[in-house]
Amino acid sequence: MAGKKELFQKEGRKIWSYRFTHPRTGKQVRGSTGKTEKSEAQQVLDQIKADIWLTVTPDTDKPIRLWGEAAIRWLEETEKRSIRTDASRLSILNEVMLETPITDINGDYIREDVIKGLLEKRNIKPATINRYVMLIQSILNKAYKVWRWIDTVPYLPRPGKSKEGKRKAWVTPDQWKRIHAELSEHYGDVALLALATGLRYSNVAKLEWRWIDSVNNCIIIPKEVFKGKRDHALPINETARRVLSKYYGKHPTRVFVYKGRPFDRLNQRYWHAAVDKAGVNDELRAAGLLEFNERFVFHGLRHSFATWLVRTGISVDVVEELGGWAPDSSRMVFTYAHAAGVSRLLPYSRRMDEILEGTNKEFSTVLAPVTWSFLAPSELSL
Question: pLDDT tens for residues 332-343?
């Protein structure tokens, strides 16, 4: 039987936690039983201790790694611009996760201890909670793939849709022209190709020449880099063709280069400065497309692509295919095996040429909020 110190409840919590000394390593084992009844929690604890004796040998036993160790190593090894944000979020997560063994972090633990027990009590919005969970998932992925601290990676739950996720800001052709005028030639070409094709920023900025099928006049984004984890092909309209032709021959593998080097990152400050200078954010807020503290992000060009096409009368099903939003991969006809089928969508893709040239008479420039059933909240992220 476990002693009183082995099974306990944290202050203000109903769920029973456990801690005991590992019989072979001498280190403390900590975690949550996920149970509110003490008798059930005791059964969980007894089973955990029995599993250790039955399955762990001195030769194969791995040292128990705590979440705090993983968090520190993540901050030390990760190089990205948002590392300060990660550090801030980890300091909050450490309030409950600091001494938790990473092998005990699973869906139930995240749902009960982290989301309900910590983040929701702080009145953190669902969309931001998603980012906390994604950070935890990223650290666990690295603990599995790189550090080899764990043998499996659990799938962690998300709190669900946020109200902000339903808002899809888009710009009119006139607003786009004003934004484009504030951008440098190079950055403007990246943005124009994103708008003309509906591709995500990462797929446009890191576009490779080998993904361009000149025979079938299409761009094929391989599943390894496409968010939907499937090959995605789209026809090359005239606007996209003009942009691509400007960069042909400048680099052996990548389309967009800056000062001879491949172009990768989005300079968000530069982008927001251009949108602000164009006066677009205030107009979108007045139209109800943005909240008072929101700004039009680069990904909004993808929403503009969808909105413009639907407003010219193209069906949502066709726009789904063009943008790669199809909910069922079996509906996608875009693979390397039959890329020639993309040509049937070219007339629809050319509507973007008409809108940008101002020759499409069916398009309405009246700003209004829109909600697309095929655009998930996660699409808002860059």
Answer: 333 333 344 667
Q: pLDDT higher for 119 or 1? A: 119
Burial 157-196 (b: 16+ CB within 10 A, else e): ebbeebeebebbbbbbbebbebbbebbeeebbbbbbbbbb
Can you give the pLDDT at residue 38? 86
pLDDT, tens only, 173-213: 999 999 999 999 989 999 999 999 999 988 998 999 999 98
Q: State the DSSP H helix or E strand holding residue 142, giving kind and residue range, or none if neither.
A: helix 126-145
CA–CA separation, 208 vs 222, rounded Å?
Answer: 10
- Architecture per CATH, 167-380: Orthogonal Bundle (1.10)
User: So where are the chain's domains?
Assistant: 7-55, 67-160, 167-380
- What is the structure's pLDDT at 377? 33
Query: Whole-angstrom Cα distance, residue 159 to residue 138?
Result: 17
- Output the pTM of the full model: 0.54
